[in-house]
Write a structure and sequence with these properties.
It is built from 1 helix and 8 strands; from the N terminus they run αββββββββ. It is an alpha+beta fold. The chain has a single domain, classed as minor pseudopilin epsh fold (3-Layer(bab) Sandwich). It has a 4-stranded antiparallel β-sheet, covered by helices on one side. Strands 4-6-7-8 form a 4-stranded antiparallel β-sheet, with helices on one face.
Length: 189
């Protein structure tokens, strides 16, 4: 027993068949739109990466300065942060992007002596496109947490020609802060 209308089987037509897909024109237009969008967003993504990298560098400098200050207060004697190219001795050559040492300095000679002084931290080399400038060769915190000498600023710049700049300001009192207002004149254009 059948319920409803019946259909006769039909033969398959061998004529035109509907083809789905993209035409060459549609593909070219789609690629052009993607290229335009990539061209618009590419520079801003690159700038965000640079800003993020410089912010991370500033945070590392501020963290190490805070560690040096807190260790000087805790230990009751001087702690030194000095630039170092080899990760073993302080140097007066080059800039801070070559890395630095953080060590306790009970004899106040501002040089790391592995036999009598404890190395607290070694920071390695930064990429060549990151510039870290400071006029001092070392930063010494006294047992009271003061940074001997005058105020000092670490200028962190992107050497690839970007306008991305950051800075860490160290007051003689030992206070550490970030500032971008006075940084621009110390970075290359």
């Amino acid at each position: 027993m059948r319920w409803g209308p019946t259909r006769k089987p039909t033969a398959h037509k061998t004529g035109y068949r509907r083809v789905t897909g993209f035409t060459l024109i549609e593909l070219i237009i789609t690629l052009a739109v993607i290229a335009i969008l990539a061209g618009l967003t590419g520079p801003s993504i690159y700038r965000s990466i640079i800003q993020s990298r410089l912010s991370a560098t500033v945070n590392e400098i501020a963290t190490d300065l805070n560690l040096a200050r807190s260790e000087a207060l805790r230990r009751g004697h001087a702690v030194v942060l000095c630039k170092s190219g080899d990760g073993q001795q302080c140097t007066r050559q080059g800039d801070w992007q070559q890395g630095w040492l953080l060590f306790n300095d009970p004899n106040n000679d501002k040089q790391f002596d592995p036999d009598s002084e404890q190395l607290l931290k070694v920071r390695g080399t930064y990429p060549e496109h990151t510039q870290i400038n400071n006029s001092r060769h070392y930063i010494r915190f006294s047992a009271r947490g003061n940074a001997h000498g005058s105020n000092s600023t670490f200028h962190v710049c992107d050497a690839a020609g970007s306008v991305a700049r950051r800075g860490v300001i160290l007051a003689a009192s030992g206070k550490i802060s970030n500032n971008e207002d006075e940084i621009n004149r110390h970075c290359p254009d």
